[in-house]
Amino acid sequence: MSDPAFHEVRFPTDLAFNSTGGPERQTEVVRLGSGREERNTRWAESRRRFDAGYGIRTLNDLHEVIVFFEERRGRLHGFRFRDPLDWKSCAPTATPAPTDCRIGTGDGDTRAFQLVKVYGSSSTKYTRSIAKPVAGTVRVAVDGAEKDEGADFALDAATGIVTFSSAETPAADAVIRAGFEFDVPVRFDTDRLEINLAAFEAGELPSVPLVEILP
């Protein structure tokens, strides 16, 4: 189900390209009297933070961000953001293939599968749910055979759920894989944009903090 507090629009890609940021986690580290330490993660999922201010170079860029900020009502509404380093099911310079990421195993009955991106290949690999795929980029394969969007499966680009037609329900033990481009669901992490025009003209960039919205 779509979120009324989320706007299915993307932050200007040319401004996002020069942004800074990436994933963060929260780990508790307890140092013991012996000098050893114990570590425990408080978050099961990583969360991404960005500062889009580094992409703002001109007055027109500033105006574009202000318009986008006002349309989202500050922190109120979420939106899509293209992570400049992590926006495909594969490496940034590669082309998504239908076999990139395993998204499920058939049981002969289940037709809906959530898109995921898998980081790593060992027993410690991390699986990340992908809720904002880019429409028209999703490729799906069952046991290595690529399926056709529309005829064989449908994509909900607002949730990242792939649903097979009844005639194409994956058989028991069939491996379902997918490749895609995707955006990160984010919101502004401030209700106030602090812009000093004199400082901007002197080369100081404004801060435009964004934070990922976790499901």
UniProtKB/TrEMBL annotation:
From the Swiss-Prot or TrEMBL record, give the protein name: Glycoside hydrolase family 24
Tell me one Pfam family matched here: DUF2460
Q: Which UniProt keywords are present, listed alphabetically?
A: Hydrolase
**Boundaries of every DUF2460 domain copy:** 7-213
Provide any one GO MF term from the record: hydrolase activity
Organism placement in taxonomy? Bacteria, Pseudomonadati, Pseudomonadota, Alphaproteobacteria, Hyphomicrobiales
Q: Which organism is it from?
A: Rhodobium orientis
Q: Which NCBIfam families match?
A: chp_TIGR02217
